[in-house]
# Entry
Amino acid sequence: MKIRILFYLIGLFLMGFGVTLTIKADLGAGAWDALNVGLSNVVGLTVGSWVIIIGVILIFINALIVRGKPKLLAVVTILLIGFSVDFWLIVVMNNVHLSTLLLQVISLIAGIILIAIGVAMYLQTKFPANPIDQLMISLHERFQLNFMIAKTIGEVTALILAFILQGPIGVGTIIITFLIGPMIQWINKPMTKRYELLLKR
# Structure
């Protein structure tokens, strides 16, 4: 049980840090994060607050897709992610400004890798998924799509909404949109083996 909780918390912690790095790279945030930043700029509230609000909305959308009951325990997950994003973005890296293109690219790549590792880690635990990742799982279960395609569908949908709200969209957004799905797919298998090995100890 300790390993399970540890994977869950570390995964969400890494995910929040990864999101912050992609935003700070200022090359274009991931589609969902660009949407949250756009909402924060247009409506107000913190980026983490919009992570939570959008997450609650997606909980009910996911229930409709799989024709089941809303997974309300997922609120715990999005609360942790929302607080994690605000912690990294406001408390730790508020005054961090990347002065060169090289640093921006490094921040973007590191952010993508950390998000993928974080997602792959906490999904192993079978605790309620982040509603964005649950959207990927719901599409996978309902339409038998692999994770790569299911994740990309969600990312493109968010990208359109982020564009409408004038969120921070750029070349980084396109890279994240089409790379995050394959990256999760690639990391998921070895992460599963590692998790199962740790549980047997």
